[in-house]
Amino acid sequence: MPTVLHVLPHAGGGGQTYVDLLEGCSSFVHERLTLSTGRTPAQAVVSLPARWPAVARAARRADLVHVHGDTAALLALALLRARPSVVTTHGLHLLRRVRGPMRAGVVLGLRAAAQAADRVICTSHAERDELAGLLPAPARRRLVVVHNGIALPSPADPAQRSAARGALGLANGDVAVLFLGELHERKAPLDAVAAAQAARTRGARVVLLVAGDGPQASAVRERAGPAVRPLGFRGDVDRLLTAADLLVMPSAREGLSFAVLEAMGRGLALVVSDAPGNPEAVGDAGVVVPVGDRAALATALTRLATDHDERARLGAAARERVRTTFTLDRLREEVSATYHDALSRSHQSA
Q1: pLDDT digits (tens, 9 = 90+) for 244-286
Q2: Are residues 222 and 85 in the same domain?
Q3: How far apart are CA 281 and CA 276, in angstroms?
Q4: 45, 162: one domain
Q5: Which residues 6+ apart lie within 8 Å of 49 measured at CB?
Q6: Domain ranges, residue 68
């Protein structure tokens, strides 16, 4: 049975979730290693030289190397060239955040990675189109779109929902809006906070549950009040989703968010930004507002908080969209097919 080595930039993040889900592909043996012990550049500089020999040895033993994210693709370029390989872009976060002289270097590195890999999996059409615009025609032909997918959750029964809301101190009539993710500028938690406060002043009984930690955690805590409840890092995401009425995702950069898919699968209405990936996920099963437009975000939260029927309609459409489009079986099948394609290409060129 072929062995796939998953190379991730660091522990945590969507790449780990993605690999967890792919481990159900029974026709492959899956191993994983991280290039860094932490998320910061300083941690990478210290840990990468120490970790690289083990990663290189594992890659030589593997039948195929699967590198996750554009940062890891640049760091692991030698592995992509040496072995049958696949890259998954996971939102192109490095490319989308760099500016100035560094951007030219990142573009050159991504061109080299796309030309070295046998296949590049983009998690959205937006990612594929953005990356394709940087590549020569032969490399563009290596790009494939494979949307993320999840197992459809069972609906929460009323008793579970009541218990989850009670544990969070939510009263009857409160509309729980969940923000779930790292409290980082790119995720725009302060936009969600400002919008929830504005909706509350308009009479909507919005309670924003902010679940996560990060650089903007203290700024979120400073704004705690009737409209905003900072929860810190939480390991009980299922319970939070069970308690919530809405999910808000105002981020400036996303791939195809697993948090969005999980909320959709549980039948929550969604308000998301028009950052690449979000509109592709929600389709017509959510409300899409411009990135950084706090007024539009507040208007959307106010409208949905005061319209139970519209929330229910959007939530039902979101769950159906996961059931028919963003399935775990489809994700595994399409990634497995990409693996076989990459192995076949490598054998043909040998």
Answers
A1: 999 999 999 888 999 999 999 999 999 999 999 999 999 999 9
A2: no
A3: 10
A4: no
A5: none
A6: 3-149+327-349
